Amino acid sequence: MCGIIGYVGSKQALPVIIEGLQRLEYRGYDSAGIALISPAGNIEVRRAVGKLQNLVTQLQEEPKPLKGSVGMGHTRWATHGKPTELNAHPHRGPQSRVVVVHNGIIENYVQLKQELVQSGYSFNYSSETDTEVIAHLLEKCMLREGDTLEQATIKTLNRLKGTAAIVAISLDDPEKIVAARLSNAGAVVIGYGAEVEHEMFIASDIPAILPHTRRITFLESNEVAVLNTAGVTFFNSKGEVISKEIVTVNIDAISAAKGGYKHFMQKEIYDQPQALSDTLLGRVDLENGNVKLEDFKFSKSDIAAIEKVTLIGCGTSWHAGLVAKFWIESLAGLPCDVDYGSEFRYRDPILTPNHLLVAITQSGETVDTLAGIEEAKLKKAKVVSVVNVVGSQAARVADGVIYMHAGPEIGVASTKAFITSLADLFLLAVYLGRERGKLGADRAQSLLQSLVEIPNLLANTLLENSIYDQISRKFYTAKDFLYLGRGINYPIALEGALKLKELSYIHAEGYPAGELKHGPIALIDEGLPVVAIVVKDGLYDKVVSAVEQVKARDGFVLAIASEGDELIAGKADKVIYIPNTDPLLMPLLTTIPVQLLSYHLAEIRGCDVDQPRNLAKSVTVE
Q1: Which candidate in 2, 314, 336, 607 is catalytic?
Q2: What's the pTM value of the predicted model, to 2 decimals?
Q3: How many helices, marked H, and strands, marked E, lie in the chain?
Q4: Which parts of 103-162 fold into alpha helices (H)?
Q5: Active site residue 617
Q6: Active-site entry in 140, 267, 382, 617
Q7: Quick one: how far is CA 567 from the chain centroid?
Q8: Could you report the per-residue pLDDT of 404-444, keeping only the tens digit for each?
Q9: Which PANTHER family does the UniProt entry name for this protein (predicted)?
Q10: Domains of the chain, CATH where assigned
Q11: pLDDT tens digit sequence for 258-312
């Protein structure tokens, strides 16, 4: 969720912090703020409501530029309290000796606040946030109990319940930054900068510090890091010094340029052929019909022992799981369930050592999905994460990882991460089918050959744009859309409806076409646009029948159809054609039109495509 960046070194901290926040704004853009320890011995705090640019403008209008070589910044996605300047981070302690930024939710903050009030503290700033409690606790430990900033942080960490990534600075320890992580949500990344600059970095996500370093360490749950110009020291929750491994990440920094595209999301839609190619690279053995998964470290006996697969994810990742259910059951011969991460964590799922849990998460930090992984591991199930961010929590705690290789995805609404997660899940299904002897070499070769042809087919699908402009201009004032699909393309109807809601704020529903007569048909009239996925597969005739039912009630039908299908052209009002491929792989192609339709509708409506209201890229709190 919220974005955090911190710096300590010999350079001016403000430019580093602002640049880092710009790379993190996809994590939250309700408000932003910075805190610097100035050469005069003060903590200078600046906050602004709305997008980061508002803060930048405010700083540019300062009569004198803020200076300081120790500081931190925060971009917020509101959890406790409305997006106001009062609720924006950083937050001060009551005597302004300690300043804190925080990503996460403190579940027991009401109880802690009551305790502080009873002990004589008043909450002068009167924010609505849980973060203010952290600042008070830290300052209490330092001023009343004589603790150093790290000692106070360790004590405070042991009092908190919930999820938290915390970064703090103090006038009483002015040459250091202290960071802490509570639970396995709320990532904390420590970056080792250039030795000549004697600098260290801290961030809530790797891209924020990639321009400065690729040498990083991850904080785990209940760990504390103390950064200064000499380096970093790590502690556990008992205050004991611990050692941590430094890893080198090999991913490109996010380019600030959109490459000629108007929005990051638009660029990411058009990046999908390359992203898919990168995902398949080195994994497909066409000669033998096999799949190579480099980080899938299970023995043949482990795979043979699998009795059931459960897929969990949230939002778009859940839709990817729904598609993968068809693949796993048909190609691997395994029963398969799909569950929302947010629901899975709150029931007592039946899991055994012969159960495979597949967690799908672009960021690898989605709190509900991480909780599902934890539940599975407690019950000794095997866990595989399908994840995009290298070194993320979901990747580190799983027994096996299948990386998406989508590259950084900046647009909040997922596009290329969805396509690459589908590819990963298809590879997994083929891999399991081959290893378990359920999928023959000839069929596997045919499927994999079709798969490696998809990037070119995607590129062809992206060529046609005029129809999206036509549809958008016709229906940009619509209040509702209905998406229909059957079988393996029903989840794409759900994904299309989700994308439209996320981007354009138009209400939309995705339905199985076979359920049309069981309720939704009551909505059909001349004012309701219906997007029907009508591709040539075993359910083609069934979906054509649904289209006819819509047209009989004067509904407008936009069909997504297989190339060369003349029948549907005579029944639908508009048709978007996609290339033909194996029916099992059609979702990789039917996804493109629903993405482009949502994008164009949002753009013509004047919506913020890259940062839709109320949404953040990775949901690291409940």
Answers
A1: 2
A2: 0.73
A3: 19, 27
A4: 109-118, 131-145, 149-159
A5: yes
A6: 617
A7: 40
A8: 988 778 888 889 999 999 999 999 999 999 999 999 999 99
A9: GLUCOSAMINE--FRUCTOSE-6-PHOSPHATE AMINOTRANSFERASE, ISOMERIZING, GLUTAMINE--FRUCTOSE-6-PHOSPHATE TRANSAMINASE (ISOMERIZING)
A10: 3-248 (3.60.20.10), 264-461 (3.40.50.10490), 466-604 (3.40.50.10490)
A11: 556 888 888 899 999 888 988 988 898 888 999 999 888 899 999 999 999 999 9
